[in-house]
Amino acid sequence: MTQKIAIGSDHAGFQLKEILKSYLQSEGHEVLDFGCPSEESCDYPDYAAKVAHAVAEGKAERGVLVCGTGIGMCMTANKIKGIRAAVLRTFDDARLSREHNDANIACLGGRITAVHQAQSLLDTFLKTPFQGGRHAARVQKIEIHAKS
Ligand code: RB5
Fold it and tell me: What global pTM score does this model have?
């Protein structure tokens, strides 16, 4: 199933972001690119916020964020209400963040994860459905606790 996907990176994730953008488009997805536009140094929170807001507001179904490690992007994106971002390193991360946590943004490390691994992790992330059931109430509690 093709999806509308918001993508963003900082300078450290720029190269991988460009490759993943082309890859996602070749798979038939619609990609909204929120920058950054080059390898010139910039600040990852600015791009994490743009992608996170696009997903939270329903302008995209999923998001992809790439920085050096994926960690700073993930920390920032999770500050936005309604966002459940996960750093993906392994296939279990990609699968379980969807099945159990209904993650809506995938964060990748351009300095950590090789291109083919990143593409495969994204494939798994995009194709794996949320399991619901006992996980649904737990996911709802994420937002409840965010308010306190
Ligand atoms: C940039 O040097 C680096 O700190 C950034 O891309 C990211 O890894 C932060 O989490």
Answer: 0.98
